[in-house]
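check this one:
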Amino acid sequence: MLERVTSATDRFLDPEVHGVERARLRFLVGAMVAAAISAAGAAVVMLALGNVVGAMGGLLAVLANGAALALVRRGRSLGAALLFNGSGALLVNGFALTSGGATSPVFAVNAAIVALASATLPGRAVVGFVGLPLAVALFTVLAPETVESWRVLEESRASAAISQMLGLGFIWLIVGSMVGILGRAVETAAFRERELNDALERLERTSVSKAYIDKVLRGVRDMILVTDPHGHVLDANPAAVERSGFSQTELLAMNVMELVEGTGSFEESELEGYSSRMRHADGRMFAVLLSRGRLEGGAGLVWAISDISVQQAAMEAIRRSHSQAEEANVAKSRFLATMSHELRTPLNAIIGYAELIDDQLDGPPDVLEDIRRIRTAGTHLLGLINGILDLSKIEAGKLQVFLEDVEPRAFIDDVIGTVRPHASRKGLELRVEVPDTLGLVRVDETKTRQILLNLMSNAIKFTGRGSVTLAVELYERAGTPWIQFEVSDTGIGMNEADADRVFEPFVQGDDTTVRAYGGTGLGLSIALAFARMMGGRIAVHSELGVGSQFRVDLPAGEPAWESLANG
């Protein structure tokens, strides 16, 4: 029976309550059930004997125990214990005062109530449960007539026997519950010991982990702050102390908002890579990179703060240098534009007069040769000035791209017609490979013609014998039509180092090439710049002593689709 009562009590209690607390509540529930049964029996007996007051007291005791059980169910064990013990003490002593005071057999039940109070309540509360029966006993001794006048039930052997039986039954139920609880307490103690051992083991692991984490934090060069959810600093690593200039004690008395600008709302758990400024102990502000994360369970925040003042100063220096370089470049471009205009005007006059004298003067051959040298030198100088002017315009961003639908064969023929005399004078074979279905393409005709003219002129200049070939092809890449111009020659070629820098301004390979062939070294630079302006590219493949191959790829636009379809 005791086992069944204990099992029922366990089902009644909250399953989340364990250990000693569960044992205490189990004991309390058992005592309440025993008291409720005793109170119900007493109410029935009192009613049978004509003691209506006693019967109502027993009924009130039953209701009080029911309310106490409800409080236990809700986890309010202290309130339940007070209600249970208090109602029992009032009932027993009230019944004793109406049946002879301290001489009543029911008065002995106070011993069980005091025992229950000691087991379920704090020590100071038990004093009241000891004082109440003492007061009743003292009142019985000092005012026996008054106590006798309060007697509601006449004393008889039957009533005394019933009272003693109820008191002993109540005590038996209490003792039985306590025996059951003690058995369970042994089991609970063993369970508690296991819990304690597990807790000690976890604590040991936690201590090791904390020591490891402390070592890591001490070795981190970035500032690490741990704060509560409201930003109050709870811990700081040595780097934070060193970089901020504040002592550990000063940091722990501060809020992170006092240290760092723009920390954002603490409701936002994550904050990563946020540029801000941090206050140093000497009052100056320095640039930092801020990251923030929330501790598991919302217990606080972890702040990682990197000092980027050196990097920011370097970036500012770079920005200033870049700005100065741009201003210098603009000034250079303006100077070149002005000087080129001032130089081209007299040069055009010199070249024009030299051509006029060469055509109309019928003089000595040596004089005519000097005139031709003047014209050649002027033409070379004018080409150099034009190249420098074009390059300065490209750098200044003053050249624009004008795309139009053109027939490539037309400007290809113009280029070939321009370079053919030079190729014929050197005895070179000039080959042109253009497909019949080329059709229209959308390019900047002027810039495309200039690219081909520069590449073909270079190929002829650096080829002593053999051939120079211009091949044209239309193809599709990633859903976009492209046109490719390939200029190849059988000239002197280049080594890999020269090929890597051949597109740099004023570069023509090694010094031997410059002395032997002359030129400004701007043609390929301008060609590459024009190709990039149109969204294209130029690639070179060369082998020293064998020849070179320059390949130009340009977007051809929508009109080229028809040509691709026909091809």
In short: The CA atoms of residues 506 and 521 lie 4 Å apart. The two ends are 102 Å apart (CA to CA).
